[in-house]
Prior knowledge:
By secondary structure, the chain is an alpha/beta fold. The chain has helices at about 25-35, 55-65, 80-90, 105-110, 120-135, 150-165, 180-195, 210-225, 245-255, 275-285, 305-315, 350-360, 365-385, 390-395, 400-405, and strands spanning about 5-10, 40-45, 70-80, 95-100, 140-145, 170-175, 200-205, 230, 265. It has 2 domains: about 5-280, Aldolase class I (TIM Barrel, Alpha-Beta Barrel), CATH 3.20.20; about 350-405. An 8-stranded parallel β-barrel has the order 1-2-3-4-5-6-7-8, surrounded by 6 helices. Helix 1 links the parallel strand 1 (about 5-10) and strand 2.
Amino acid sequence: MAKIYLLDVTNRDGVQTSRICLSKLQKTMVNLYLSQMGVFQSEFGFPVTHHETNYLNANLALAKKGAFGSMRLSGWLRAIPSDVKLAFKLVPLIKHFNLSISTSDQMIKHKFRGKLDHASVIEEMASAVKLAKKMGAKSIGVNAEDASRTDIDYLISFSQAAKEAGADRLRYCDTLGFDSPITIYERVKKLAEAIHLPIEIHCHNDLGMVVANSVCGAAAANDAGEDAYINTCINGMGERAGNADLVAVILAIKFSSGTRDKYVLDKKVNLKLAWKICKYASYAFGIPIPINQPGVGTNAFAHESGIHADGALKDRRNYELYDFEDLGRGEPETVDTGRKITTGEYSGIKGFRNVYEKLEIKFHDDKEAAKILELVRYGNVHNQKSLTESELMFIAKYPEIARKIMSVTP
């Protein structure tokens, strides 16, 4: 039976959001949280962008150590041979890619401006896919940028050429949030039936329909007998109005009347990590979670009006489709209100060891502690904010990889 998988793009499309960013250490932590949540693949960065090189290679080293379990790490490239060659030069161990090129008349005419036409778009893409396969790529998704504004017959021809070149999936990009749940269902179903390839659904929220469009697009692929890969971002980050929120997508598939008994979500997905991953991303991005965010917002389980409060107290199902415990909420959180020793870029060894002892991490001797302290100092400078407990534990567990992650060679 066809299934729905999650391919998260927080570390690629999410960090392209204007006015926000993540440090390389924070991007690594996002990958760790995503793997714990059971996400199939993380699009972890740009292999041809030089300031990403150390981070990408370090994360692939972590993957080799089993730090991310079975989660794949994939890179985003333009669908041109020169990008493929440079990617393998800078990040030799990378095996999973998404190769992207624009396909709509709007983009071909007004973005490429004569450099490419409809035929050469296909030729360029196919050459890049063939080269990536030849150089060792294990899986390739081909991105049809602006697919929702692309003539469907041309999109099918483009996708068939991608399949013949060796692509494993086709990414249907609703780049401007132009689709509606009805149109994306119709278009993706026709596409999947024509090309017989798994379909990635990549949607934006410009018209406020991103989660509905993502779920309906995935349903269409499944109804055509093909697996679907919904592209998500933690807390709905992403360019302009954002991408499909990771948690909202999971909730929609698991609890909506139209999907919960009909479509199968990847069994590895663990919703109980939702609260933890959303809080971390909020802290790392420096953006509060909206109070009305599905599942994790402050008001997601709040009831004030008399009728609603009374009904919820009698039976939570009166006004709640799912339980707060399902998202990992409700666990007691300890808040220090007295003396607190923290680690920072100017921390000393005694305070530093006190912090790690509370995390139940012990060092063999002062030499080892001093080595980790130096990395923690750099971590605070790198992030420009206090390190979280999970970041402190990561640095202690993988000191040499942490050093590489926090190193950028201009």
